[in-house]
Design brief:
The chain is α/β, with parallel strands linked by helices. The chain is 26% helix and 22% strand. 43% of the residues are buried.
């Protein structure tokens, strides 16, 4: 079971609803793997994992660029299994030349961001360190966060640099290394665990979840998801206000971890 965080497990704020925590615990006790897969930095994913009681297992951050193994005995409760990075200089220079008012935040894995200007805490997770423009690319990064009016107009130019650029909202773009997504990271975890591809479920609500829902044997879009995501989903559940993820979690309690596939009897009639 792969779960997006914002808009899927969480609405406004940081508190995971009690019924979601109960459903996740029951699912794990039944033998299912629960993997968080988020566009958030690892610094933003780990507190949610703790809130859900996920002390062991896997977590995917930065839209697939970072994979961590949860381990309560490790420093910080995790070890970095995989961190794919890229040189953020071409991205920063392109953005500064075309949209100089855009906020640029360059992720430092597990810590926070180097930023060109302060970004509101509710927008990005982790600590921030204000640096000069040139220091933004002082070290490689798994993700660059861009925020500002008109930033979606840069998508094609960014992709021409060879990176992955994904719209996160009308004024927000995530830039990550080429040829990766939540789906590529999840598939690596799936292979490590020896789980057949037909035994996978994913729930999400954003454009950055398209690849993940397409990858899963059962891809579920939240009810408030954009049309592009609902179009690729096998089914649509309730909205975040309805806590729609809980019905998906509970539906798996009636199955064994080895019985999930496109040939199962889940209702996929709603689009």
């Amino acid at each position: 079971m792969a779960l997006d965080i914002d808009g899927t497990l969480l609405g406004a704020g940081w508190e995971v609803p009690r019924e979601t925590r109960i459903a996740v615990k029951a699912l794990r006790l039944a033998g299912h793997h629960v993997v968080l897969a988020s566009g958030r930095s690892l610094a933003g994913v780990l507190p949610v994992a703790r809130s859900l009681g996920l002390a062991h297992g896997w977590a995917i951050a930065s839209n697939g660029a970072v994979t961590a193994r949860l381990n309560p005995l490790a420093p910080g409760g995790h070890t970095i299994q995989e961190a794919t990075t890229f040189d953020p200089e071409p991205v920063a220079r392109l953005v500064a030349a075309q949209l100089p008012e855009t906020q640029i935040a360059v992720e430092e894995t597990g810590w926070g961001y180097r930023t060109s200007t302060p970004v509101p805490d509710e927008v990005i997770n982790g600590r921030q360190r204000l640096v000069s423009f040139e220091e933004l690319w002082s070290t490689p990064t798994p993700r660059v966060f861009l925020r500002g009016a008109g930033v979606l107009d840069l998508l094609d130019s960014l992709r021409a640099l060879g990176v992955t650029a994904t719209a996160g909202g009308p004024t927000w773009v995530d830039v990550t290394p080429p040829d990766l997504s939540k789906a590529t990271a999840l598939d690596a975890v799936r292979q490590t665990l020896g789980i057949p591809s037909t035994h996978t479920v994913a729930v999400g609500d954003g454009i950055n979840d398209i690849a993940m829902l397409t990858w899963a044997a059962r891809g579920v879009a939240m009810g408030h998801s954009p049309a592009e995501l609902r179009a690729v989903a096998d089914e649509v559940t309730g909205t975040i206000a309805d806590n729609g993820v809980v019905s998906v979690l509970r539906s798996l309690l009636a199955t064994s971890p080895a019985s999930i596939s496109h040939d199962s009897t889940f209702d996929r009639s709603v689009r």
